Amino acid sequence: MGNTAGKRNRKAERGTALVLTLLIITTLAGLTIGFSGESGVELTLAGYSRDSYKAYLTAKAGIDAGMALLAYDEDPAMDSLNEDWAQLDEAFFTLQGLETEGIAVSGGIADESGKINLNLLRNNDGEINETREEHIRRLFLALGLKEEMVNPILDWLDGDDVEMQDGAEAYYYENLDDPYPCGNGPFLTPGQIFLVKGMGKIKQFEGKRLLDYITIYSDGKVNINTAPKEVLQCLSESMDAAMADAIIEFRKDEDFMGIDDLKKVPAISGEVFAEIRDWITVKGSTFSIDFSVNANGAAAEIRTYVLREGGKTRPIYWQVL
What we know:
The protein has 321 residues and is of the alpha/beta class.
C-alpha cells in the first residue's frame, strides 16, 4: 500500500517537474522571440537612419555641384538653358550609377531671373507699381489662374490696411483658426508667399509649381534665355503665346547674347521689342538649386538660393525639407 502511494507521489512530482520545465522553455522561447524582434526593429531603424543620411548627403552633393558649376560659368554675362549648370539634373546622378544602390534623385538649377519678382511689385513708399501689377495679372491668366487671385498678394505687399476686392488684409489673417499677421511689406522668404490668402491652394496645380514662375530674388528684369513661356507672355499685352513659343524655339539653337538679339526672332516686331526692352535681360545673378532624394524609402530634400557675384557663389537662403 505504502509502496503504491510512493509511486503515485513520484509520478506527481515528475508531472509537476515536466510542467515546470515546459513553462520555463515556453518563457525562454518567448523571451528569445521578443529579443529577436527588438533586434530586428533596431536593425531596421539603423538601416533607415543610414539611408536617411545617405539621402541627405546625395542631396547636398547636388547643391555643391550646382554652386560649383555656377561659380565657374565661362560667360557670366549671359545665362542660358544651353549651359552646363542647366544640365545638372537627375540625368547627372544616373550617370553615377546611384540607382543600383536604390537611390533616386530629382531636381536641378533654375535661374530666378527667368521669373517675376513679387517683391518688386511694391516700391519704397509701399505703393504698388502699376506696370509690374499688369505683368503679374497677365502671368496668372497665362497660367490658367484667376486674375483676382493676385489681389491678396497686392494687399500683403502694400503698406496700407485697405482691402481690395477679393483681397485680404489684417482682419482676414487675424481671424483664421491659426491666426498670423499680414505682411504689409515684402516677402522675407519664398515659402512666405504661401501664407497669402489662396496661394497655398495653388502651390502646385495642373502639374506645375508656382515657384517656377515667381520669385523674390532677382533685379526685376526677366532673362529671355531662361524664362518659361508664360513669363515671356506676361511682359506685354502684345506678346501672345505664338511669340513666346517663337522665342523659346529660337533660343534652343542660339543664345541671346544681348537683348537686341531678340530682334532676330521673326515673330517679334519692333513695337513689341520697344514695349519690353526695359524689362528684359540675358543674364541672371540669383539661382535656386533644389534636389530631392529617395534612398530605399528614406527621403531628403534641400533647396537653396545662391547669389553669384565676382566668380563666386554664396547661399542666401537654405532649407532642408
